[in-house]
Amino acid sequence: MKDQYDFSKGERGKFYRPDAVFRLSVYLDEAVEIYLAKKAEAKGIELPDFDNEPLKKEIATIGREVAPS
């Protein structure tokens, strides 16, 4: 790393996008990931498409609404 960096020609907010959507990355325990991967494979779908379903069911169980995706 350099001792100093020159930001004198930098432009504030150059890459700012007010409508940007940020996704939360969730890291699963290995055992949980393996379990969900097997369930997804049994249903013939990819894990990222499957992993929200158990969470939505859990939220419904505790009586809260989840906005449709």
Describe the main β-sheet briefly. Answer: none
**Average residue-wise pLDDT:** 87
Helix segment tally = 3
How many DSSP E strands? 0
What is the distance, rounded to the nearest whole angstrom, between the alpha carbons of the first and last residues? 43 Å
Uncertain runs are: none
Summarize the structure.
By secondary structure, the protein is mainly alpha-helical. It has helices at 30-43, 47-50, 52-61.
Task: Outline the structure in words.
This protein is mostly helical and 69 residues long. It has a domain at 44-69. The protein contains three helices and no strands. It has helices spanning 30-43, 47-50, 52-61. The protein is elongated and about 55 Å long. The model has no long low-confidence stretch (mean pLDDT 87).
Key terms for this structure?
single chain; 69 residues; mainly alpha; 3 helices; 41% helix
Task: Please outline the helices and strands.
Blueprint: H1 30-43, H2 47-50, H3 52-61
